[in-house]
User: Which sequence fits this backbone?
């Protein structure tokens, strides 16, 4: 059997195993349980140390015979907090691109009920406020995208053909260019962005930027095992196509284009 | 990319990036798929308390823990006892596990000696290099090469026999 043959058959064999939102809730419960256990162990150890110290002190001879010399030196224990970091200033220049902040309806947790999402802002940051039918509101802040203005949720659809909708946000100022960040629902309450292998946010570009036309697509369907997908971003400069390949974490499969734009379909209208 | 990472929620990000793939990896390493999620849950619980600047280190640690836990049935039982009760599986999830159990390749993998199975899966499913596989398995690169080629040959034979 060749390695490629094995790889392909193994990927197909375990393909049906997809984590459910309950898996994430279970994980949170397990992490919380571990935290409580760690605290209990620490508290017990601290109590034991205090007890031993108390017993040792009681056993010491007390009175004038144990006068101790004073060294005269006092060591101040200070904590160097380093330079103060001030938050990035709020972005004031929105650019020529119109922006909209409607509340968008979607089914984020796949329970068949309508949830909503909208972009919210505070000085120096933006986030997505998600309201789930039976679970109330939660805001997921996007601190890594400071300096990028969230123009709109351009899609609230199931991009990757699982049972939940993804939130796709345009973070470009340029009217002719879309720079899309895909936020993937995790469990019942969190969103995480589609990330490159090193954790950086993956930004998908489509549209034109001067003379350059951008598009993105799927370069490699081989996402077996550790579930990494390769996205191909293409720059078309005067007829020449230059490809940049980006490995992203997760199993996001673009089964359809990101709707809500008048731009031509991206090349991602394929099975990865 | 010009934007740098600041994790929204480390646990959520780690979960989204690797959980599914590690469950699938565990399913190929274990003798039964039923325990694969327990193993991955425990690996996540262990890695969560650690500070790691390099995301790849977290993945390497998770993978190593999954392999270690997959090795011992006794250890897996202890893991299951440490975890909170598992949420009930839906019919769809039950069906998915049953499908994986019935797969001819999965059955052929289970017939392999443990180290051959690990080597083949780590090299060709987890896409580790020979050096990385040797580190995870705690053996030499030469051994990894031997286990992998023997494992693949044996798998081919098993599958032909099954057919």
Assistant:
């Amino acid at each position: 059997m060749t390695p490629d043959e094995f790889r392909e058959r193994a990927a197909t064999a375990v393909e049906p195993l997809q984590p459910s939102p309950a898996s994430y809730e279970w994980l949170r419960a397990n992490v919380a349980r571990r935290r409580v256990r760690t605290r209990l162990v620490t508290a017990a150890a601290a109590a034991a140390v205090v007890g031993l110290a108390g017993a040792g002190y009681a056993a010491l001879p007390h009175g004038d015979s144990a006068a101790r010399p004073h060294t005269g030196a006092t060591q101040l224990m200070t904590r160097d907090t380093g330079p103060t970091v001030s938050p990035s200033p709020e972005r004031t220049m929105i650019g020529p691109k119109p922006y909209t902040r409607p509340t968008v309806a979607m089914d984020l947790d796949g329970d068949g009920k309508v949830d909503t999402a909208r972009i919210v802002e505070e000085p120096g940051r933006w986030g997505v406020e998600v309201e789930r039918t039976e679970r109330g509101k939660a805001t997921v802040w996007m601190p890594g995208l400071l300096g990028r203005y969230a123009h709109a949720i351009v899609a609230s659809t199931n991009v990757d053909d699982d049972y939940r909708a993804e939130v796709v946000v345009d973070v470009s100022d340029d009217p002719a260019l879309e720079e899309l960040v895909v936020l993937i629902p995790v469990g019942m309450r969190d969103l995480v962005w589609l990330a490159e292998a090193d954790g950086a946010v993956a930004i998908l570009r489509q549209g034109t930027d001067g003379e350059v036309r951008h598009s993105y697509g799927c370069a490699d369907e081989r996402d077996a095992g550790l579930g990494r997908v390769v996205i191909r971003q293409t720059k078309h400069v005067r007829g020449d196509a230059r490809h940049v390949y980006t490995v992203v974490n997760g199993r996001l499969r673009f089964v359809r284009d990101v709707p809500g734009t008048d731009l031509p379909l991206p090349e991602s209208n394929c099975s990865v | 990319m010009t934007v740098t990472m600041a994790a929204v929620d480390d646990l959520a990000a780690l979960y989204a990036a690797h959980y599914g793939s590690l469950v699938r990896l565990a399913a190929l390493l274990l003798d039964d798929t039923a325990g694969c999620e327990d193993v991955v849950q425990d690996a996540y619980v262990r890695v969560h308390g650690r500070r790691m600047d390099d995301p790849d280190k977290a993945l390497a640690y998770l993978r190593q823990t999954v392999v270690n836990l997959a090795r011992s049935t006794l250890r897996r039982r202890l893991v299951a006892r440490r975890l909170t009760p598992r949420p009930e599986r839906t019919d769809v999830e039950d069906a998915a596990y049953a499908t994986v159990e019935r797969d001819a390749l999965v059955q052929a993998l289970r017939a392999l000696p443990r180290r051959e199975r690990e080597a083949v899966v780590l090299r060709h499913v987890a896409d580790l290099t020979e050096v990385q596989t040797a580190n995870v398995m705690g053996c030499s690169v030469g051994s990894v090469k031997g286990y992998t080629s023997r494992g693949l040959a044996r798998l081919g034979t098993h599958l032909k026999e099954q057919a």
